[in-house]
Design brief:
mainly alpha, 59% helix, 0% strand, rod-shaped, disordered C terminus
C-alpha cells in the first residue's frame, strides 16, 4: 500500500512539474509575442514619422521660391553692405528660380494637394494614405549658377 501511495505521489509530482513547465513555456511565448508587437509598433512609428517628414520637406520644397528666399534674406539683413577689396560692382543677393520641373500652375496644384492632405481633423477613412518617400517626385537637376 505504501508503494502505491509513493507511486501516486511521484505521478502527482511529475504532473505538477509538467504543468509548471507548460506554464513557463506559455509565459515565454507570451513575452516573445509582446516583444514582437512592441518592435512592430516602434517600426510603424518610425515609418509614420519618416513619411510625415518627407511630406513636410516636399511642401517646403514646393512653397519655397526665389522671392521667399530674398524676403528672408532681407529680414535678416543688418543694413550693412559687405566690404570688398578692389573695384567692382556691389554684390546683390539674387536667387535663381527653383527648378522643380513643370509650370508654376502644376507646382501650385501639387502644393495645394499636399496642404489639403495635411489638414488636421481628417478622419482616417477619408484621408489619403501618404505616399512612401521613394514615391515622391524628384526635382529636375538645377542649372549651374552663371559665373562672372
Amino acid at each position: 500500500m505504501e508503494a502505491t501511495q509513493n507511486s501516486i505521489q511521484a505521478e502527482n509530482r511529475v504532473r505538477q512539474v509538467r504543468a509548471e513547465a507548460d506554464q513557463a513555456i506559455a509565459e515565454a511565448h507570451g513575452a516573445a509575442e509582446a516583444a514582437r508587437q512592441r518592435a512592430q509598433g516602434e517600426a510603424d512609428a518610425v515609418l509614420i514619422r519618416a513619411r510625415a517628414d518627407a511630406k513636410a520637406n516636399e511642401i517646403i520644397r514646393y512653397s519655397t521660391t526665389g522671392t521667399v528666399l530674398q524676403y528672408r534674406a532681407l529680414e535678416r539683413w543688418d543694413g550693412k553692405l559687405p566690404l570688398m577689396n578692389g573695384g567692382g560692382s556691389l554684390p546683390m543677393l539674387t536667387f535663381r528660380r527653383l527648378q522643380l520641373g513643370g509650370s508654376d500652375a502644376e507646382r501650385d496644384k501639387r502644393l495645394k494637394e499636399l496642404l489639403e492632405e495635411s489638414k488636421p481633423g481628417k478622419d482616417a477613412a477619408g484621408a489619403k494614405n501618404p505616399a512612401p518617400p521613394d514615391a515622391l517626385p524628384t526635382p529636375a537637376p538645377a542649372a549651374s549658377a552663371p559665373t562672372q
